[in-house]
């Protein structure tokens, strides 16, 4: 039912691509991250929130035509449906069904950890599961994100004269960290870099209560304005002079990759926060076990270990080795 082409994953029976790397005539998009959602396609089908997010990121003319995914839809000889992936706001798995070949589910990026900033993952029975493998090594076992936030708040309390700067990607991670802080009892202001503003505003418009957000700009011209405060910014901001405006900042980074201490050191991260929007090894293998597909196709990361695990479990599996997803941001 699916083919791998230079443009990405293609469904010949439906005449569309899923998260293609290059502009194509018809694309189905799982979510709004830039490595999955690109501008320039002739037609795009996605959830209403993903279409909104693409318009925010690329402008209203990011595609010639757009279609909101609502319920099962017939495309060519197949029926497609979108189901929550638990990754970021608007993220979806795409199920493709055909009377002769059964149902194939493309997960896109997904998470089974509770995320207050988006709809939870929905298990979808299938004959073929196309799963990501971003953290597909047994060493990756993500801790409870609430405990990581408590570590952050303990550091804020221990260093009241310092600002805590948290690197968080603009779509999904920033809003999840904000929501986790609110759930942990932080009801004060949270300062955000300007690059996060539009997507935070969009989450608020979708009913995600982010609380008191303020621009991370000087109010009195003194660094002490931000003593004891929490500031969120895209990780790229920390390499610029922007970060120097804060008092003796504690550099933090919220990512599943922070489990790899060498990565934290390379980025100059003082307080790594292991908060991921992807499945870790236990949730990845649990998903395959629960869905029990006839075949598992693996992409987006560390394919070899998961292929080997499937073989040891007596499962049929194969790597897709698609270009463009060698390492997912998280």
UniProtKB/TrEMBL annotation:
Is Ligase found in the keyword set?
yes
What EC number is given for this enzyme?
A: 3.1.-.-
Q: What class of enzyme is it?
A: hydrolase
Q: Which Gene3D superfamilies match?
A: 3.40.50.10890, Ribonuclease Z/Hydroxyacylglutathione hydrolase-like (3.60.15.10)
**Keywords in UniProt for this one?**
Exonuclease, Hydrolase, Ligase, Nuclease
InterPro entries named in the record: MBL, RibonucZ/Hydroxyglut_hydro, Xnuc_lig_assoc
Signal peptide (from-to): none
Gene Ontology terms for molecular function: exonuclease activity; ligase activity; RNA endonuclease activity
| PANTHER family attached to this UniProt entry | BLL1145 PROTEIN, CLEAVAGE AND POLYADENYLATION SPECIFICITY FACTOR FAMILY MEMBER
Name of the featured protein? Ligase-associated DNA damage response exonuclease
Species of origin: Pseudorhodobacter turbinis
Lineage summary: Bacteria, Pseudomonadati, Pseudomonadota, Alphaproteobacteria, Rhodobacterales
């Amino acid at each position: 039912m699916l083919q791998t082409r230079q443009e990405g994953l293609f469904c010949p029976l439906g005449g569309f691509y899923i998260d293609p790397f290059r502009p194509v005539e018809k694309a189905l998009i799982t979510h709004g991250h830039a490595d999955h959602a690109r501008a320039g396609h002739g037609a795009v089908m996605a959830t209403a929130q993903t279409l909104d997010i693409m318009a925010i990121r690329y402008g209203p003319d990011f595609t010639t035509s757009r279609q909101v995914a609502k319920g099962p839809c017939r495309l060519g000889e197949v029926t497609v449906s979108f189901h929550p992936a638990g990754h970021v706001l608007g993220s979806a798995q795409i199920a493709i069904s055909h009377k002769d070949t059964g149902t194939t589910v493309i997960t896109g990026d997904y998470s089974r950890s509770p995320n207050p900033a988006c709809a939870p993952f929905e298990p979808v029975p299938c004959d073929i599961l196309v799963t990501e493998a971003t953290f597909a090594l047994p060493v990756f076992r993500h801790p409870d994100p609430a405990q990581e936030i408590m570590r952050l708040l303990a550091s804020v309390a221990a260093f009241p004269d310092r600002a805590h700067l948290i690197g968080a990607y603009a779509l999904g991670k920033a809003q999840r960290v904000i929501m986790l802080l609110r759930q942990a009892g932080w009801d004060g202001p949270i300062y955000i870099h300007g690059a996060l503003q539009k997507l935070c505003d969009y989450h608020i418009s979708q009913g995600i209560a982010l609380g008191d957000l303020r621009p991370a700009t000087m109010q009195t011209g003194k660094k002490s304005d931000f003593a004891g405060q929490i500031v969120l910014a895209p990780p790229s901001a920390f390499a610029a002079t922007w970060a120097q405006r804060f008092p003796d900042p504690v550099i933090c980074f919220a990512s599943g990759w922070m489990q790899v201490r060498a990565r934290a050191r390379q980025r100059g991260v003082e307080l790594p926060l292991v908060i991921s929007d992807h499945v870790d090894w236990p949730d990845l293998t649990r998903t395959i076990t629960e869905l029990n597909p006839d075949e598992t196709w693996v992409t987006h990361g560390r394919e070899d270990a998961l292929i080997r695990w499937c073989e040891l479990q007596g499962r049929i599996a194969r790597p897709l080795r698609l270009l463009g997803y060698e390492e997912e941001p998280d």
